[in-house]
Design goal:
Blueprint lengths: L1 E9 L3 H19 L2 E6 L4 H7 L5 H8 L3 E6 L14 H12 L3 E7 L12 H4 L3 E7 L7 E7 L4 E5 L4 H16 L4 E6 L5 H14 L6 E6 H10 L6 E4 L1 H15 L8 E3 L4 E3 L18 H13 L4 H16 L2 E2 L11 E2 L2 H24 L1
Bound molecules: 3-isopropylmalic acid and manganese (II) ion.
């Protein structure tokens, strides 16, 4: 298996967590005899500093020339005074648009070993396995007109969706649900917004092609409450862009930390992989960041771009094992007796070891 991976580590903790993720991909390649190549390029604040723009042409070329793009994080307080179109985040939005992936998959799995790390009671987080399908190229993020008029002191953003944009992302949600627990919860604000009425009508129509999947609709405000109250009721959660942004951060509470959440964006020319967390400038460069979100993102690269499902699972199981053994970065440490506080790098090393052991075992089994 050959795979060309563009690595865009970005800002803050991006480089340190991405290093652990690429180490895991290298290990999988080595252990399985695959040929993975990595090309690094700049995005976000580091790109503004080096090249004057958050998404240099060279970066876009590298990304478009690859089979998968692995991104760390973007965002730097240094640029807070800039308008949204000049900030590090603009680089991320531009590359999302250029790669064309419209379905952002954000799994939120409550690892049993982390039950004590969530502020929610263990009986609430038990067995939670939600897959958010967030529409990534429409809604308020990209709609026009958009403007802050300093003369009139008025600002405007536009929430806009076409039927086709809803159909294509809804199909992804139903396809995935049909291979899981066969339930889609579609999130909207149809009691107030026309866009949401279009959303709800379209999703209801798409659902007819998937009679084996149950569809329910939830208003976004009550959904925010339900995912804290009874998260295990949800399987696939389908949302527009901003609602998905907000609800997926909220889902980080269920897993114990935002640092645990991976994501993959599919449907475009090249898939884009990024952990859900941001650049966390307050802890950058201190070895405190949780690399598990980035490592689980690497597992998604194996699953969705390399077709190596077994290896993807092996990475996820290795993460599971390391958590069971009690290893914790600061964000998931609750200081109980059986846990051990480790650095970003040490956490990566532990996952690597657990992974190598499981792949060795698998190969030994195939050899007999
Ligand atoms: C995310 C982030 C981005 C988003 C920002 C950095 C543009 O919050 O991936 O969730 O809002 O989509
Ligand atoms: Mn976000």
């Amino acid at each position: 298996m050959r795979l060309k991976i563009a690595v865009l580590a970005g800002d803050g903790i991006g480089p340190e967590v991405t290093r652990e993720a690429t180490n895991i991909l290298r290990a999988v390649a080595e252990l399985g005899g695959h040929d993975f190549t990595f090309s690094e390029a700049l995005i976000g604040g580091v790109a503004i500093t080096a090249a004057g723009t958050p998404l240099p042409t060279a970066t876009l070329d590298t990304a478009l020339d690859s089979d998968a793009v692995l991104l760390g994080a973007v965002g730097d307080n240094k640029f807070n005074a800039l308008t949204p179109d000049k900030r590090p985040e603009a680089g991320l939005l531009q590359i999302r648009q250029a790669l064309g992936g419209y379905a952002n998959l954000r799994p939120s799995v409550a690892y049993a070993a982390l039950a004590g790390s969530s502020p929610l009671r263990p009986e609430v987080t038990k067995d939670v396995d939600i897959l958010f399908v967030r529409e990534l190229l429409g809604g308020l993020y990209f709609g026009s007109p958009r403007e802050w008029n300093k003369q009139t002191n008025e600002a405007i953003n536009t929430m806009r969706y076409t039927r086709d944009e809803v159909v294509r992302v809804a199909r992804v949600a139903f396809e995935l649900a049909s291979k899981r627990r066969k339930k889609v919860t579609s999130v909207d604000k149809a009691n107030v917004l026309e866009v949401s009425q279009l959303w709800r009508a379209t999703v209801t129509e798409v659902a007819k092609d998937y009679p084996e999947v149950t569809l329910e609709h939830q208003l976004v405000d009550s959904m925010a409450m339900h995912i804290m109250n009874i998260p295990r009721n949800f399987d696939v959660v389908l949302t527009e862009n901003l609602f998905g942004d907000i609800l997926s951060d909220e889902a980080g509470v269920i897993t114990g930390s935002l640092g645990m959440l991976p994501s993959a964006t599919i449907g475009g020319a090249v898939n884009l992989y990024e952990p859900v967390h941001g650049s966390a400038p307050d802890i950058a460069g201190q070895g405190k960041a949780n690399p598990l979100g980035a490592i689980l993102t690497a597992a998604m690269v194996l699953r969705h771009s390399a077709g190596l499902e077994q290896d993807a699972r092996a990475v996820e199981q290795a993460v599971h094992k390391v958590l069971e053994a009690g290893y914790r970065t600061a964000d998931i440490a609750r200081g109980d007796a059986n846990t051990q506080l480790v650095s970003t790098q040490e956490m990566g090393k532990q996952v690597h070891q657990a992974l190598a052991e499981s792949i060795d075992r698998r190969q030994a089994m195939h050899a007999v």
